[in-house]
Design brief:
Two copies of one chain form a homodimer. Chain A is α/β, with parallel strands linked by helices. Chain A folds into two domains: about 240 residues, 3-Layer(aba) Sandwich (Aldehyde Dehydrogenase, Chain A, domain 1); about 140 residues, Aldehyde Dehydrogenase, Chain A, domain 2 (3-Layer(aba) Sandwich). Chain A is about 40% helix and about 20% strand. In chain A, the strands form four sheets. Chain A has a seven-stranded parallel β-sheet with strand order 10-9-11-8-7-12-13, sandwiched between helices. In chain A, helix 2 packs across helix 7. Chain A starts with a helix and ends with a strand.
């Protein structure tokens, strides 16, 4: 057995053992561990920042720059946010053990569904030490064990953060092995994880398209992920145009490089003449380049003509595709063809069309009169998220504590047998 | 493109189109289609029985026998059961469109989860024409389209049943393409289905271990299935021994060849001397062979010693493994090691141990004082089932209408944007 395989296998095995203990633990111990982690982040703040500074230094020397370097960095404020998140997760009710849909069958057998942890989660993610704390906290609250494999640039930060988490677990009387870090930065370690379907119940990958594809194609266990966010705003004929402009601006400009940013606007033909010139003026002033379908060009001054592959494209940049549609049906067809099941928005004052859009559009979050940037676990009230799923099995949308659990059937009998 | 690929692709594509229509339809149309199918099964009963007789004849000539031949056959009674099932599914409330967990966030955005169909289901199953009707009915009720690929022996029966279903759909104003049959009996058609992740949202295989493995290893989309049912009965020190005997008998003898039958009994040492001789007498009389751990042999007259691979084995036959355990912990460890996450039973009168077993055992159905034979969608009140899942993602246990749906997030705003 290769050394890489041996290391990963050993981690996964001990995580599996810890998972059995975690599933049987009560909410109080989990809460203690989370609150102890808050204290440890306070007590060890200097050490954490020092380890992170070393990661940053090495990453800069290796040529890392821009948003990637930004995501790697921790400071007093990001640590304060992490601690606030830990407190929030600690305060949430324990999801495990909840019994729902209990009914008594004709033979007297009482049957319901009990919420239980998933088991062991494999989390493969980018170089963002905050994600280490968030993922471990959600996993712990849900009663799981987790095997973390973060980006190599964050290894020093992650090593210390996981040590602190393990200390918090141990002091709360929980198995330290419930949070594990794969200390190997080569891709071989990822490939080994994907083979361990006996020990890992699910893999959640987060990162670029290449990593996601690698995981989806090689994992022997179920995978929860989002591929990309090609998100549309449909501006209806009865839209409040001020609202539409505000949402388009927020969706495209506030953080263009993220998965819940806006990539295309579809405008009803009756709103085009009034909306499009103002959209162009406002977005161009914010540095956005418009790529317009030829049917939108007459309303625009500077926009270039969109090419065929601009539809369904995730620009992740200050670029926005624009098209005029004859009716809502055309918008729905466009979204069905080019959308990526992530986030879709209608702006309308019409009741029936609002409800129809809400019902018929197939996306993890469908919004009426709000910015697509809300597709985020914290924004939607889940406390935090470990990722967003755009596949429909198990979870569709942001994944928080509840999405890291499942239910089993339970039955309380008095000797019933089948006739 | 091969002819097989072309045929399967065309079916999947038209199912995908139908799925969009189905998702937008209301409950009344779906109910009309289901009730029309009941009428059609009445009107065309002779034709259905004739097609089935031809299938049976050909299967007999090809050497099919035993339970497989039994599953292939339809008669007036099985048709009556199918019609009763269709009426039950029709009478269930429409799951689609239900909004749950609606909350108003601090910014006034109202966020909830709306239940929606999964989309297109691929169902690959054995030669059992009843399953064709049940799967199509569940899929329809949940608002999905379904691509059916039944065993080759049932092709004549399935072809007619699917034609009737398509007629019922069309007469109810729904797309006939929402229920499709793959008319090809070679395995190449299965392999082609597994590649169509663009069109099929999930694959549900049902059948022998070979088929399940083929599907699990080759499918590009999520798969819901159960591998096997290695189900234990733990008889506690405080058990009602009459009840334990009754449940052991029902679990093992009533239908030994099915996945929810009993395969092993674990007896607390304090109950062994009284229970085991009676268990042997009763089960031997019913034709059951006991395979005993050496610690159980002293209590038994005729049992042979179990070999190492009798633990964790799905006998699917009148064979039962028996072991004495020193305490409940040993039973829990045995089940964690050898169980298959299908069905596990404790017989006890002790409150704390009943609850502990219920909570700690990781299986799709955990029962106190009832027969494992209840792990079945109809028995558990789901109306019917398309299969039983022993993997924890999305569904764990029998899969009925609800398990063929998912939820998306929906948000009702008044112009909210992110700050």
């Amino acid at each position: 057995m290769s050394e890489v395989r041996e290391t990963v296998l050993e981690l996964a095995r001990s995580a599996r053992q810890a998972a059995r203990q975690m599933a049987a633990t009560d909410g109080a111990a989990k809460q203690r561990a989370l609150l102890r982690m808050v204290e440890l982040l306070d007590e060890k703040e200097n050490e954490v920042l020092k380890a992170n500074a070393a990661d940053l230094q090495a990453a800069k020397e290796a040529g890392l720059a821009g948003p990637k370097l930004g995501r790697l960095g921790l400071d007093g404020r990001t640590l304060a946010d992490l601690k606030a998140g830990l407190r929030q997760v600690a305060a949430m009710p324990d999801p495990v053990g909840e019994i729902s849909q209990m009914q008594t069958l004709a033979n007297g057998l009482q049957v319901g569904r009990m919420r239980i942890p998933l088991g062991v989660i494999g989390f493969i993610y980018e170089s963002r030490p905050g994600a280490t704390v968030e993922a471990a906290a959600l996993s712990l609250k849900a009663g799981n064990a987790i095997v973390l494999r973060g980006g190599k640039e964050a290894l020093r930060s992650n090593t210390l953060l996981v040590e602190l988490f393990q200390q918090a677990l141990a002091e709360a009387g929980l198995p330290a092995a419930a949070v594990q870090l794969v200390p190997l930065s080569d891709r071989a370690a990822v490939l080994e994880m994907l083979k361990l379907d006996e020990y890992l119940d699910v893999i959640i990958p987060r990162g670029g398209e290449g990593l996601i594809r690698l995981v989806a194609e090689n994992a022997r266990m179920p995978v929860l992920y989002h591929a990309k966010g090609v998100n549309h705003l449909y501006v209806d004929e009865d839209a409040d145009l001020e609202m539409a402009l505000k949402i388009a601006h927020n969706g495209k400009v506030q953080r263009p490089g993220v998965c819940n940013a806006l990539e295309a606007v579809l405008v009803h033909q009756d709103a085009a003449a009034e909306l499009l010139p103002r959209l162009e003026a406002e977005l161009t002033a914010a540095g956005v380049e418009l790529r317009a379908h030829e049917n939108a060009l007459p309303y625009l001054k500077q926009a270039r003509r969109a090419s065929a592959d601009d539809w369904g494209r995730e620009f992740l940049d200050l670029i926005l595709a624009v098209k005029v549609v004859a009716a809502m049906d055309e918008a729905l067809n466009h979204i069905a063809r080019y959308g990526s099941h992530h986030t879709e928005v209608i702006v309308t004052e019409d009741y029936a069309r609002a409800l129809r859009f809400l019902r018929e559009v197939d996306a993890s979050l469908v919004l009426v009169n709000a910015s697509p940037r809300f597709n985020d676990g914290f924004q939607l009230g889940l406390g935090a998220e470990i990722g967003i799923s755009t596949s429909k099995l198990h979870a569709y949308g942001p994944m928080g504590v509840r999405e890291l659990t499942t239910t089993k059937f339970v039955g309380l009998g008095q000797g019933q047998v089948r006739g």
